[in-house]
Amino acid sequence: MNAKIEVRETRLSLLIEETLIMKDAGYRLVQIGCTSLAAGSVEHANTLELFYSYDKNYDLVNLKVLIGKNAEIPSISGIYPAAYLYENEIHDLFGVFIKGMSLDFKGNLYKTAIPCPLNPDFQQKMRYIIAGFERE
Amino acid sequence: MGFFKMAGTAFTNLFRKPATLMYPVRPAKRFPNSRGTLTIEFEKCILCGICQKKCPSYAIEVDKTEKTWKIDRIRCISCGSCTDWCPKKCLHLDNPYTAPVTSEFKDTTREQHTGA
Amino acid sequence: MIKQTIIPFGPQHPVLPEPLQLDLVLEDEKVVQAIPSIGYVHRGLETLVTRQEYQEFVYVAERICGICSFIHGMGYCQAVEEIMKVEVPARGVFLRTIWAELSRIHSHLLWLGLAADAFGFENLFMQAWRIRETILDIFEETTGGRVIFSVCKVGGARKDIQPDTLVRIGQTLEKMKKDVKSIEKVFLKDNSVRHRLAGIGILTNEEAHSLGAVGPVMRASGIKVDTRMLGYAAYPDAEFEIITETAGDCYARCAVRIHEIYQSIDIIRQLIPKTPDGPVDVKVIGAPQGESYMRLEQPRGEVLYYIKANGTRLLDRFRVRTPTFANIPPLVKMLKGCDFADVPNIILTIDPCISCTER
Fold this sequence. Notes:
The complex is a heterotrimer of chains A (136), B (116) and C (359). Helix content of chain A is 16%, strand content 29%.
């Protein structure tokens, strides 16, 4: 069977629009992930890349969004109700601020010894808890 | 819809041998392929250090100047990665499993070979 | 206005194999809302990719979970092989598929035992695990380990199986079918077991689609999707159909898993005569560059591997989205409106593997 894998780049301002198009076309949300691009090249320091994966009839479509240091991402849990778990995980591991999640753990999903371990340029303090604990 | 569907199996179970072994009184069931302890033929070792680089749990230490080969038995996971990569084929994974020890003394859990 | 009480379920509970916490809001023995909370076994395995070379990382990827360990290793190896454009020899591909299907049988038998233990039927639990011992003996004979095999590597398999051993595996599985039939009779036809399972924890077709359920949970609600139809590994050489049920309750999920055991035995018996001769691995040199998405079918559902490589021997990013992570929102939906005494049963029917969920 020939299953297609498609990768598309998009912008943060068009994120909600594209998600609504996917939902109307009948796609199922597979996952939301995040990568840090700092190790790749110098001009990508402080950049993170979010990717949203959707599936329909064995075809995989990926939307990629590049975000900077203090970006605010709108949550898609109003459209796909299951997205709150992935967004909480990204907030805990990378320090990305996502507003409007349907169930917000406020940083308590994973308790790690250092905050936001997967983000090498994390310098801001976490907004809610562990006040006074900064990474060196 | 039925009743007493388990009765047949439960009855024949009375006459079967137990499915468990009285370990450690009886020895454990091992096959020829089973992975157990790591042993080294130290005369063939050339101290190249490849096994130290390929060990996923950092259990082996090779010192070329002092001519020693050390292994930490608690860290070894018996994966066999060092056995595949050794150029002189002097490492082997033997069948019997490492016997349990009751205290963590350095000479029971860390092994060292010197000389060559 | 009925008074509400909040009772925490977990993280330690005798029925759960791994720690998972659910805060249940109750009104007079009926559950009104459930709030999930995970994070008790988080080991941070995804960060180890930046410290271990890509060939040794297979041993870490295998140890994400104890029950579905082989398929994690196989998925990682397939994703790296796709980036490096390595062609695994046919015998290696067939052997990997046979081990993966045996892994699926042992995982479903383990689940049947745990489900029987959840509603108190200890004798059935022991019988299911006794049948599972024949599969673990096959594993130890061919790979050297019962739980963690360490037999998959980038470029193929590390051990070979002799042809007469393969024939003997086929005969052992055929004899095992009789034992599985005797416990299937109890699960699907016994009156008291049916009373505990039927009509509990219903998930409708639309809810399963909008909440993103995967695996037997999705197939028991009528959605006909199986990731093995993508055609990876040796699956194009075997003929099999997707098993679905329509009821969407605990009984349907149990029936789907039991029929999948028979289907896996059938797939292995189809593949054994077709296994070609030849080498099982190919030497791999160099370092990967690029990214790849790979999807496989684990016993619990669809798993996605994303690997990003930058040309050195250390990978950049390794992301696993495991099936239980996707099945937690449907679980929260299933728990609304059920009786308090049915909560352990419903949690076990999604087959929770929490150490996979939180790597």
